[in-house]
């Protein structure tokens, strides 16, 4: 399968593989300065929120800061593998509407600053969670958490939301995946988690770590 465009311009939603990240928060992507400028009013609360999270991570010390930086780079390096697995986890091939109602949560373990990129994380497990269940947790935590949740995880056309959860971080890292236009022709991978774990694990460690994975998925 050829590489798929895994990103959408946040403003015009064009599919490309060479979008540029917002220089402020480093999360959202744009195809041009014009699109970034046009989207700024909508993006500003999101941008300042992500900058605040980065500052909180820095205040927690180098361990948290290094983890936050590493998980971002890791998710970008394996975006196609993570996205392909999420398509099978939600069975988007036959149920495209599930991208609006479910989120894939992938539980990861950071291997430390000595790990060589891109193999910096192990995947421990994964779970498909109803969007409303996660929203209820955010609502119970605080109004601020609910607002952050609604801003970061609001359904977007053609986009799967994936949460990367590191037990040592006080939050989860959100990474999106653009559903390929030909997804209805894909064959669902029933062993998506095991195959994903193998793809993101350093080759000489695969046979040992692949047994650690467990999953919960919708049928």
UniProtKB/TrEMBL annotation:
Q: Which GO terms describe its molecular function?
A: zinc ion binding
Look up keyword Metal-binding and say if it applies.
yes
Q: Could you tell me which SUPFAM superfamilies the record lists for this protein? A: HIT/MYND zinc finger-like (SSF144232)
Q: Which InterPro entries does the entry link to?
A: Znf_MYND (IPR002893)
Annotated ranges, domain MYND-type: 9-47
Which UniProt keywords are present, listed alphabetically?
A: Metal-binding, Zinc, Zinc-finger
Pfam families, alphabetically?
zf-MYND (PF01753)
User: Where does the source fall among the domains of life?
Assistant: Eukaryota
Protein name as annotated: MYND-type domain-containing protein
**Among its keywords, does the record have tRNA processing?**
no
């Amino acid at each position: 399968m050829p590489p798929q465009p895994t990103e959408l311009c946040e403003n015009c939603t064009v599919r490309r593989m060479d979008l540029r990240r917002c220089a402020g928060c480093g999360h959202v992507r744009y195809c041009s300065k014009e699109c970034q400028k046009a989207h700024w009013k909508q993006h500003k609360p999101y941008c300042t929120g992500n900058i605040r999270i980065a500052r909180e991570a820095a205040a927690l010390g180098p361990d948290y800061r290094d983890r936050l930086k590493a998980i971002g780079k890791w998710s970008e390096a394996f975006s196609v593998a993570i996205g392909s697995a999420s398509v099978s986890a939600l069975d988007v091939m036959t149920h495209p509407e599930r991208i609006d109602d479910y989120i894939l949560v992938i539980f990861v373990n950071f291997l430390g600053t000595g790990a060589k990129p891109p193999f910096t994380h192990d995947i421990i497990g994964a779970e498909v969670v109803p969007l409303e269940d996660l929203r209820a947790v955010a609502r119970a935590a605080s109004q601020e958490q609910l607002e952050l949740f609604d801003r970061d995880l609001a359904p977007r056309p053609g986009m799967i939301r994936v949460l990367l959860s590191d037990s040592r971080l006080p939050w989860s890292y959100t990474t999106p995946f653009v559903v390929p236009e030909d997804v209805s022709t894909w064959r669902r991978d029933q062993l998506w988690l095991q195959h994903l774990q193998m793809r993101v694990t350093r080759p000489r460690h695969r046979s040992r770590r692949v047994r650690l994975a467990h999953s919960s998925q919708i049928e």
